[in-house]
Amino acid sequence: MIQHPAILSLLMTSAIVSAMMLFAGWKGLVILWDWDINSGSEHQLQLERSTYLISTILASVLFFHIISLFLYIFTADDIRTMFVGAMCAAGSLNANSFGYPVLLLKIGSCICAGIWLVINHADTQGYDYPLIKAKYALLLALVPFIIVETGLQFLYFSGLKAQVITSCCGSLFSAGAGTISSDLAALPRVPMMVTLVAAIAVTCFSGIWFRAKMSGGYLFAAASMVTFIIAVAALVSFISIYTYELPTHHCPFCMLHKEYGYIGYPIYAVLLLGAISGAGVGALMPGRKQPSLAQIVPGIQRTLAGVSVLAYLVFAIIAGYLVLFSGLQFTP
């Protein structure tokens, strides 16, 4: 099974990303230790040339790492036909104990990678590399996550056995199964609707306030991340059942199928975009105190806040459409 083209692509991409991250991490460690922008030594000049090279390479590598999250979900969904009992990616990921941990690691590392790209973009705008130490400190924190993720991903794909009988999404995301997924499915529908609407409203209001007043950046960043978590829970709790028009079907993966218009892909894309852009606003707040970025960072933050608000509004429109125009109706 490991010879599946998509699996080979994922493994090769992850191996390349991990190798580049290790190289960049080692260079980042040297930069954190020896960096002195006021020094004119040959060693400092070499570090400055190195950071150009590393930033350019990592910008491409981490972008592909973010894309690999969707390739991982697509691959897990595509190989479902090889397992008895699997109806979608939910069953494939449950075929052994590594599938879901890899998915969670990928989501976390993709958000961190997006934040790193935001900081890197701002840092390259300043003539004195004002965010370079924060940038490489985040990189060093990100390296072990990606290495572990790569290792677990290899264990997941190499450990898949076609004769394994796995569970379908109907049992994995059914209330009362005693798992995290079943707990999400059991969340009450109406209170979750109210919570999601309130979370999106707070995020959009704080984002618009930030763009107008340039204050409350940390609040907006926190609101966008909380909204991301609530939106994922809402997908399992009630958006899924309106999408499938079936009150017992809470799977967040079946909406990636053709019969549902591949609606899951734009939903997950805008959620990830909203979370990364919103968190990026908070990550750049210290940059506003740097003289060389004082006139640059606010413009980047306004753009990020606008992108995040727009992404969550698109999510709200899609979710609202799925609920309002669903054939599933509940009587009071």
Automatic annotation (TrEMBL):
Residues spanning the membrane: 7-32, 52-74, 95-116, 136-157, 164-186, 192-210, 217-242, 262-284, 304-324
Keyword list, A-Z: Membrane, Transmembrane, Transmembrane helix
Stretches assigned to coiled coil: none
Top-rank taxon: Bacteria
Name the record gives this protein: Uncharacterized protein
